[in-house]
Amino acid sequence: MSNAKLPRDFYTRASVLAIARDLLGQRLVVAGAGGRGRVAGIIVETEAYRGPQDRASHAHGGRRTARTETMYRIGGTAYVYFVYGMHHQFNVVTNVADVPHAILVRALEPVEGLASMRRRWPAPPPVLTNGPGKLCRALGIDRALDGADLLGDRVWIERGAPPAPRAIARGPRIGIDYAGPWAARPWRFWIRGNPFASRRDAPARPTASAPRLPGRAARPRG
DNA sequence: CAGCAGATTGACT
DNA sequence: GTCAATCTGCTGC
Q1: Protein A204 CA to nucleic acid B9 C1', in Å?
Q2: What's the CA–C1' distance between A212 and C8, in Å?
Q3: Does any strand C atom come closer than 7 Å to the Cβ of A126?
Q4: Is A68 (CB) below 7 Å from strand C?
Q5: What pLDDT does A212 receive?
Q6: E-state strands within A20-154
Q7: Any strand B atom closer than 7 Å to A133 CB
Q8: Which residues of chain A have pLDDT under 70?
Q9: Residue A24 in contact with residue A43, Cβ under 8 Å?
Q10: What is the rounded distance in angstroms from the CA atom of residue A109 to the CA atom of residue A119?
């Protein structure tokens, strides 16, 4: 089935970095509600947060609070929180229960329900889903979905077409300067050159399996 | 219970 | 490049 939900064992694997990479090309879906049809987008950018050891993680040092409790659930759970007084952030919990790994979905290519997405703004931006806060607004994701089972019927991820290994770029995570050296770790993954990624000019480097291309890698798209 | 920083965004110099 | 918006969850008193 091309539209099968990703199974539990996709999410419970031990390597949050591998899962962050493997989410690229998959399809994030939010069920229709309130007279709206379902909305969906292809994941084009992710960031991994590796639990207690990772200074940038909400669960750094094993921190366990009302908010972070969701991160300790089993892989395949949605972790949604609210920041900056106005934006929600959608994360995928990974690994087994009590290991608080999570992956922030930073950007999507919108593919279903574009009209529904635009209706969430009085004046819709030209690109609806090129950032973690924007994609939550476009898809109607808020804290009501915190803790939702990704194998359930409210929000889920369907199998899509993974990008070729050489099309995957990685680099430092965004917006975590407070995390010191952890901010420099290349734990952000995106589809190289994708026009829906949140930062098209960010420093990119080849993945281990990809050869460096000569010359024009950073050339702007036409 | 006051103070503050935040896994962002859009407007503006 | 700078900066305000806007509010929650935390920390520390």
Answers
A1: 23
A2: 44
A3: no
A4: yes
A5: 38
A6: 27-30, 39-50, 78-83, 87-94, 101-112
A7: yes
A8: 1-2, 200-222
A9: yes
A10: 17
